[in-house]
Amino acid sequence: MPALPSKVTDWAKQKVPKAYLPRPKWKAVTQIQNTTDLLGCDRRFTSPQTVLIDIIILFHYHDDSDSNNGMSFDLKFRFDDLLDNERLRIALSRLLELEGWRKLGARIRPAETGALGHHIPESFDSGRPGFAWSSATFDVAVDKYPQASRLTHPHGLDAAGRPSVSHVPSCAASSDFGSFIRTPGFAQHLDDWLSSDSPVLGIHVIHFRDATLMTTSFLHSVTDMMGLKAVLEAWTAILRGEEDEVTPFMGFLDDVVGGLNKTIPLPQVRYHFEEMLLTGWKLTWFAAKHLLPTELFWSLREEELVVLLPAKYLKRMREQAMEELATQAPTADGEEASFVSEADIIFAWWTRIVLRAEDSSPSRTICLRNTCCCRPLLAELNLIPSAASTLVTNAVFGLLTFSQVRQVLEQSLAATAVEIRRALIKQRTAEQLQALDAIERHHKPAIFGDAGMFLLTHSIWDKTKLFEVDFLPAVVRQGLGLNKRNSQLGRPSCVLGFTTSDYAIRNAGAVVGKDEVVNCWLVYSLRKRIWPEVERELLFMSA
């Protein structure tokens, strides 16, 4: 690792590499305390003074995007056991003392140039801790406490064997619920971080007689979900007393993902959907149809809810799809349809549910955007040692599938899943990733398709194995009997992901993961008026 600067007295005036060109709006923020955002809303704050002995590192190129800066996550874990507060806190404190991992204790500051930077304290103490930590204790069962009872009860939900929607309030939509489930007063929007000395990571632990709730909060600019997986693995390794199992932190100074445009030789291939890039009046029309109505008309605002897909229902869908594919002949260009993953099936199934609820025009183009981790491709390009390297950053890209509403609704679920799989195979290559990266550096935002299309965004968090995170060494007492629950001792029985965003995230969501009995949990944001239609569709399809 390159030597770290011990003091930075004039960072704001240093030469900024091209990859870190300033975002003009942050330049305005640092110079004007009373400013407005894109839609004319007031934004007023004063950024704290720079601490001269802080280590300051520019945001990496792909971390410093409007979409990442404008979104924060709150991941809620439910453990049906009593976890020791101090063991958890001490283990995380120790992790942030290790080389590289200290970056998780950074503050966020703007510079005069407009660039954003991580300001890492020289040392962490009670005045400037490495993370925000809070806890609360209630001498009552978790399901008897008013706020906690609003969360999804994770046990026995699959008894009916059909999908269902759970009306769990999000932290953004309900301020009283947010103040209960997350660290009180912890930053939630980028402006909150910029106007305070808040660390980027917050942990809130709530103890009940029979359970522990733990919420991990962070700004999306810090990392994606695979990066969070690395943090959780390192934290639990120290908790087990196995500090030597903590892998080296990559990307402390070096922008690994930003190196996509520096590999030699650069690929000579074109991005698969390059000719479908929206520019000029087409991009303006897309924004007019999607951005303005979504942001301005409150009657159309979205709602983020939880969807449970029971194991037996998912198993039946997968078996039916594989049986259908086994009877199909190869396509004219020789492509076989012999395999689709569970993720393909889930995305195809959910797309059909949403389109039926939306009642869109049959001829309307639909773009299915599958958010994919690019760590394996970074390893292929020798930018990281392996796909399993500890890379705490944003390393994802979108895989696109284009179709028509009529086609998705009329063809079989297996056929749509095959289209998703074939699109993934064609685009998930190092050459396609680099070609897409080159376009995105010159077009912000880079949107592909047609101006009137319906866009559905889908993220797969299942590979983060959030339901398998093991906090057994922190367990001081079993809460719920093992014969009454779906989880092992020290492992979460339920994981929910809430988002807080400065922009509309309609028609976007994630497969959070599968619990111990293989029930699949999704969190999705749709128009409020669409959710009742979705629930009716779920009842109809599973009747």
Automatic annotation (TrEMBL):
Could you tell me which pathway this protein works in? Secondary metabolite biosynthesis
| Record's keyword terms, sorted | Acyltransferase, Transferase
* InterPro entries reported for this sequence: CAT-like_dom_sf (IPR023213), Sec_Metabolite_Acyltrans (IPR051283)
Q: Which GO terms describe its molecular function?
A: acyltransferase activity
Pfam families in the record, alphabetically? Answer: Transferase
Family affiliation: Belongs to the plant acyltransferase family.
Q: What is this protein called?
A: LysR family regulatory protein
